[in-house]
């Protein structure tokens, strides 16, 4: 963005330069147009600068300080990062983030299957579509509460189904999986919507032609449908991966990162350190780490996309 | 030119707004849980207004969890004139940063030294007072009277043997003796506090809280071993780590469990039908040689050092520090008045709590996470959860706690 600025704000012409008056007029109308463009862009740029860029850079800056949010910040260099790398909770959080990442990748295929199933013209399919769509509009807190009740080892539905209680949210071995399973529910619905939209834009002639050639079932899906859904699939994966990395609300509602921090993730760890222990600098260091992980991944994906498009 | 005019007008408005705010407006921020707590604070503010018509009150009620998050922001920037909070370590955190007003003069002037003698220590940081205690509450065992009767338990257990005997009878009757909502780790800390206070006494307990005793000490292990016996005998509900305090109570209400160790503040929330059926008794004596000490955490109000209307804030504190107001707050909050001149509570559970605390010989503790630094308390409570999920890991848990103690208290 800043690189373009000189081009749209041309140098002010000297008033004494009367010979080039017509040129000046032409240029001034162009510059007026440019100025209008700047005015239209300005609010968005300002918002991005204030609410996105400034916080990012400030967080990075803050991560080199020891600050309780009240007294004067104290510069401590990389000490926050050093401490973080030695903190057992950081490693637990990182491992859980990885588990989230891997298991969350089930959402796009599951969403695709649901979308293929719902993309039929049958009586009553609208109602079924609505039911599949429902979890997506629920807030994470509601999903978390519903699943907490479902998992309750004494009064919950799961206990009724199994005949005995399993402390899904009270056992460090199961808790992360329990929360991921709950989170997959709305995420699958989200991917399903993406794929349903993708399916409506599929070229019907091609499908017809393929059918004439004798393609059906798996070969039809593999060689005709999926290639046309490429951009949708890409979107579904990117959204899901970012969703997995910034998972927070369900953890907060269902386990608060417990028991004994076994289900915490980087985003929750950041929150915990800043809000509970007033360690803004340390918390910023964790946030920067999470940001870096996301950035590396996004840059990798974007480069791959650009290469493919090119 | 026009811009300049606008700016100066805005500035003038701001200055006059601030100026008028300083003259006789008292900003009070109150943390509350539930409508009844809010109502009692509101009526206290109304009464203060009636007694001091020259003061305008600007009250902000904030739900407790949100309050905890916002408080540091207020204290370090635009502070209200009065806040409510907890004393002990929670208060010291802000007092040590110079964010709370020194109230030592008020303590002398209002004779609080006499009426708040038992909570003076918890209200002090480095010999100066920064808090006015409002209410405190007692901890003990809540139990179902009817369940005790059907299990054939004649009287409330007074000693450890009687308690274990009652547990056996309850088990035989098919009822789990204790419910604990271990997802809220502080509910477990209540158990640690009481076992430690009864087995090792308050002096040891306070040294441990202050980080002066290693967690690998045999006396700490003794506490966990006693606790493990209860767990191994299946005296606690299964999967207690799956329940928070709210989730744990239905066990009591449905008669699946008989007892719960908790503070009296919870009594206000029992279903009206069951309230008459709920009894409350002191945590039994384990070692008769050790003077009984109790948990009695106090709530308090403070003046931030950045408050703008300190004159009226001091007046408000003096008003709340009267026996009548203290008693009224206590009743509304389901607690006990911190003011010793207040009339005794009338409601039965509060009365038992009052007896327990006034008869203590070993002193009053503020509760696990208010007696030590928050970070160590959280490590300790995480350790308890780890211990509950696998009681065989006592040594591992205690070794880890010892590592944390060395790091947090900078011991080598």
Automatic annotation (TrEMBL), chain A:
Chief place where the protein resides: membrane
Lipid bilayer topology: Multi-pass membrane protein
Gene Ontology cellular component annotations, sorted alphabetically: plasma membrane
Tagged with keyword Membrane: yes
Keywords assigned: Cell membrane, Membrane, Transmembrane, Transmembrane helix, Transport
Source taxon at top rank: Bacteria
Pfam family, one: BPD_transp_1
A biological process from GO: transmembrane transport
Record field: transmembrane: 36-61, 98-118, 130-151, 174-199, 220-245, 281-300
Compartment annotation: Cell membrane
ABC transmembrane type-1 domain segment(s): 93-303
Similarity comment: family membership: Belongs to the binding-protein-dependent transport system permease family.
UniProt-recorded name of the protein: Binding--dependent transport system inner membrane component family protein
From TrEMBL, chain B:
Family classification: Belongs to the bacterial solute-binding protein 1 family.
Cellular component aspect of the GO annotation: periplasmic space
Superkingdom to which the source organism belongs: Bacteria
Entry's localization field: Periplasm
Alphabetical list of Pfam families matching this protein: SBP_bac_1
UniProt signal peptide: 1-22
Matches recorded under InterPro entries: Bact_solute-bd_prot1 (IPR050490), SBP (IPR006059)
Protein name as it appears in the record: Bacterial extracellular solute-binding family protein
Annotated keywords: Signal
